[in-house]
């Protein structure tokens, strides 16, 4: 099982500015200190091994879209944020003209989670089968609405693909193409749902746009059970804990601290921080990652928890 | 959790010890409540002396946040003193360092509240 991140930013896509790129290049040149490189490969190795990730890369700007590759022909993907556009290009390139079957699992239908669908190339290809799964009763309405005039030039009904909406029941496991999927209700405006995917003896949990109330022990226990022994948990860590329980309480998001604590309680192997705050630059996100890794060290029990920060293009073998 | 307390002029020093986490945070809140009520009645502020606190989880941090909100609502203040390094790191990672004023020693914290509190501390 492989998890591939096409969109990792929360709430709205962001792009690096020209000033951001200039600053990264300027700092990289300073750090290189006049060093000479005989080849582009040598320069690449230096950048990879000696410079900060936030200087040589970007955590990326697309909104939520995370693919689960299972080794089957069918595609599995969580959410259709703006990352659905490059994901669609990937599907088309890989299929080389063969029609695809794409299983979409929707956390909810807030705009940042559906905005990529009108730009999802396979939706325009006859023979493509798209099954959009979710627990809300408004998913089809939301997908049609965002393509209705005057918002978009191509109406949903004009899409060439065979598109089906599949209603799931929270807490009830669903099997498709060798993958067992269980949705879990989450606290978010209008509700959201996390998904636990189990296949080939591995478990991947996608849980975004989910607020955790510390005073609600029953809710905590429910999520520990939902995460239990997962190999990988992709977690909404948009805010600091201080913000999440004060000025941004009831905004429907969580923090890195809660992510670590829940994963430790559930004996998860790998936590990936996701749904990055759009106001954060790359250096800030890298700083949050380092602090979260340190928090995990400080609070570690008998089992270490690996902590990463998602970025557009990241691939993790589970 | 035992909560030692001592009044220095118009400042009450409270000293939680051990670990503050999901298992004992509600008991801690219950221990804290009468002190917060007293502060409202007597117009005093609170210093949390964390020299004996070994660990605080998110649930414990939430207790501090709720207490600070209540203190602010009753025109009082809570400041922190003498954090152990681990607890200080957790405060920083959780961004609680932006919510609370923290001082290296109890006396520094008392002095930030009033000269009288610091003088009372010096008298022992």
State the distance separating the first and last CA atoms of chain A: 5 Å
Largest interface: A-B, 21 and 19 residues
Structural class of chain A: alpha/beta
Which stretches of chain A are low in confidence, meaning pLDDT under 50 for 5 or more residues running?
Answer: none
Fold and architecture overview:
The complex is a heterodimer of chains A (318) and B (124). Chain A is built from 10 helices and 14 strands. Chain A has 318 residues and is of the alpha/beta class. In chain A, the strands form 2 sheets. A 7-stranded mixed β-sheet of chain A has the order 6-5-4-3-2-1-14. In chain A, a hairpin with a 5-residue loop joins strand 8 and strand 9. Chain B has 124 residues and is an alpha/beta fold. Helix content of chain B is 48%, strand content 24%. In chain B, the strands form 2 sheets. Chain B has a 5-stranded mixed β-sheet. Chain B has a two-stranded parallel sheet with strand order 3-5. Chain B is globular, with a radius of gyration of 13 Å. The chains are: A alpha/beta (318), B alpha/beta (124). The interface between A and B is medium-sized, with 21 and 19 residues.
Task: Give a quick rundown of the structure.
The complex is a heterodimer of chains A (318) and B (124). Chain A has 318 residues and is α/β, with parallel strands linked by helices. Chain A has ten helices and 14 strands.
Write the layout of secondary structure elements.
The complex is a heterodimer of chains A (318) and B (124).
Chain A: E1 2-7, H1 18-32, H2 40-50, H3 53-56, E2 65-69, E3 75-78, H4 84-95, E4 101-105, H5 111-114, E5 129-134, H6 139-146, E6 162-167, E7 174-176, E8 179-186, E9 192-199, E10 202-207, H7 217-227, E11 232-236, H8 241-244, H9 256-266, E12 270-274, H10 282-299, E13 306-309, E14 315-317
Parallel strand pairs in A: 3-4, 4-5, 5-6, 10-11, 11-12, 12-13
Antiparallel strand pairs in A: 1-2, 1-14, 2-3, 7-8, 8-9, 9-10
Helix pairs in contact in A: 7-9, 9-10
Chain B: E1 3-8, E2 11-16, E3 18-20, H1 25-42, E4 45-49, E5 53-56, H2 58-73, E6 78-81, H3 85-93, E7 102-103, H4 106-113, H5 115-123
Parallel strand pairs in B: 2-4, 3-5, 4-6, 6-7
Antiparallel strand pairs in B: 1-2
